[in-house]
Amino acid sequence: MNLSSLNLFSNLQATNKQFAVIGLGRFGKAVCSTLHGLGYEVLGVDTDEKKVTQALSDRIAAHVLQLDSTEPSALAEAGIFEFDTVIVAIGNYLAESITTTLNLKEGGVTNVIAKASSETHLKLLKKVGADRVVFPEREMGCSLARSLTKPSILERFDLDPDHSIVELFVPEKFDGKTIADLDLRRRYGLTLIAVGRADKFEINPQPNERLRKGEAMVVIGSNKDINRLPI
Ligand code: ATP
Hints:
The protein has 10 helices and 11 strands. It is α/β, with parallel strands linked by helices and 231 residues long.
């Protein structure tokens, strides 16, 4: 199970199958080609002719256009205000990123996800109305640090700054204990939502089930409580 995919699920509603990606740098290209590979209709956009030509020859999106997203009329003409989700993947050009995000919100786009490359950039994007801001370098750095210090945590999905869903190996101390014995809710304030055996996850496992070292378990709760687990 890959919990990081939950990030994506939150943005893929039944009516929400078209995406526009503005900026075809490394990040934008990765977003485009992944969505395209998953079968979604993607429009890629860049001001740079070379980036557009490259994207077309690499076939990373169904449609690729050359336009300047700081121009509201160019966005309107390309029909970008009609998209439910637009990803602003312009990390290194602050003014262009902020102006584009503002244009999209003013043009009525419901879900604008923007990439930040600094704390100030992040704050500005939120101020102009970005619905979600991603800061890949920071998120990746945090995730690397966590995986180095807590190798038994396999996946982590941050619900908000204080709460997460984590997939972890059953700690040695829990080996052979039943779910009722462990009483995770009372002792740790955590809810066990699944146990992974072989290739399958059992959702809402029964209290009399015994956990074994090497199996995976998925819990939801506060980061403070998750950190109290004996891992
Ligand atoms: P990296 O490539 O290192 O991942 P990044 O994803 O942050 O970095 P940038 O270097 O910010 O990418 O470049 C993003 C792309 O956005 C570039 O290809 C650039 O040509 C494009 N771009 C910049 N300004 C505009 C604009 N006004 N309209 C459309 N595209 C733009």
